[in-house]
Amino acid sequence: MKATVNTALRLNGIRVRTAPPRWKLPCANTECSLHQLSPYIGKIKSSIAADLIERYSEPGDLVVDPFAGAGTIPFEAAIRGRRALAADISSYARILAQAKLAPPPSLDAALVLAETALDEAALLPAPDLNEVPAWVREFYHPRTLSEALNFATVCRRPGNEFLMACFLGILHHQRPGFLSYPSSHLVPYLRNRQFPRQDFPEMYAYRELKPRLLAKVRRSYKRFATPTKRAVLPFRQTAVEILTLPRQFGALITSPPYMNALDYGRDNRLRLWFIAPNLANNVDNDVTQRRQAFVNALSSLATKAERGLKPKGYCVYVVGEAIKRTFDGHPSNVVVTIMHQQAPSLRLKTVMADQIPDVRRTRRECKGVKTEHVLVFQRS
Q1: Which residues contact 107 (CB under 8 A, 6 or more apart)?
Q2: What are the residue ranges spanned by the domains of the chain?
Q3: CA angle 360-66-216, nearest 5°?
Q4: Whole-angstrom Cα distance, residue 155 to residue 342?
């Protein structure tokens, strides 16, 4: 993995390298299509995750990602001969990670699972749409919403994470293959001004769930790879402060939540409601909102890395460089300071800078957030 050195920039005395040029190349048409089950704001590119795993871990290593998000890093680790441990506080992250790490073994098996769930949902009593919040109802034709509510009920049962992820992936957008009225794809808001009902009546018509869900399942197996069951440890849905890690692990590779740059709750509000209606009313992620919460989480993680990382093992952080006037330093500087204090046996070896695409910067006041720092620490 070659990277050029930017001699004008330093972090903690280490020259900041420019990320490898291939990190800029698109990977949507080459990556495993399980990565495209459902959108996730700010997720790391699968090609970058693969590069980091290949360089900073060895086959057979246990790779830990305590901020797993969409499960990109654990999945890429598991299909590359590593073992993977994924954790995250988010219910949406849990569903996506479990769907990727333990999908049905084949397209035929996935279609049978989907057909069975659809048949079961069709037998449920019609839901009372008056009990659905108005902000949810405004996204859907009533018949579409009724089908979606019953299917979500079936998908909430343990073992149906793959189906739930496929369902969440078609929940809202403006294209015909999605369930909602014209809407944004990442952040749920309606585009009825851009697409007035009187001019685009077809976009407000009933959209049947079954053909769209089955088409989504088929797309998910277009480029299919799956880890062995032995490669994946059970997902842990928990805050990093109370996460228990194995006694020893080979590498820690993770992308912490962007501090005050991305709003994961707002961006996923509609999906969280279908996962569990009470989640949409409690969407704040404290780690992204308050500097001290970010510091506390990273301090706890540094202590765990100091305790459990194998000799000469690597700890890699992909840190979004968001900054606001109320903070006294860039997040990467905060991480370096925390590691120096809480994990003194881990030394900063490499720093790389990469540009964040616009699609991953959603808050208006953070339009200037354009850089990620990849911080590579090694146990000395």
Answers
A1: 217, 218, 221, 224
A2: 4-102+235-379, 107-220
A3: 55
A4: 41
CATH of span 4-102+235-379: 3.40.50.150
Please tell me the distance from the alpha carbon of residue 223 to that of residue 238, in angstroms, as a whole number: 31
The alpha carbon of 40 is separated from its chain's Cα centroid by a whole number of angstroms, namely 5
- Token representation of residue 301: 């993680």
Distance CA 181, CA 54 (A): 42
- Single pTM value for the model: 0.90
Query: Is residue 74 a contact partner of residue 63, using CB atoms and an 8 Å limit?
Result: yes
Distance CA 202, CA 188 (A): 20
Which of 79-100 are b and which e, b meaning 16 or more Cβ less than 10 Å from the residue's Cβ? Answer: bbbbbbbbbbbbebbbbbbbbb
- The two three-digit tokens of residue 66, written as one number: 């305590």
- In tens digits, the chain (380 residues) has pLDDT values of 665 545 446 777 888 888 899 999 999 899 999 999 999 988 899 999 999 999 999 999 999 999 999 999 999 999 999 999 999 999 999 999 999 999 999 999 999 999 999 999 999 999 999 999 999 999 999 999 999 999 999 999 999 999 999 999 999 999 999 999 999 988 899 999 999 999 999 999 999 999 999 999 999 999 999 888 889 999 999 999 999 999 999 999 999 987 555 677 788 999 999 999 886 555 445 555 567 888 999 999 999 999 999 999 999 999 987 655 444 557 888 899 999 999 999 999 999 998 776 444 444 444 445 688 999 999 98
Nearest to 68 by CA among 82, 50, 86, 53: 86
Contact in structure between 80 and 63 (CB atoms under 8 Å): no
State the Rg of the chain over Cα.
21
CA angle, 142 then 184 then 30, to 5°: 115
Copy the structure tokens of residue 102: 């333990």
Nearest alpha-carbon partner for 42 in 367, 291, 363, 361: 361
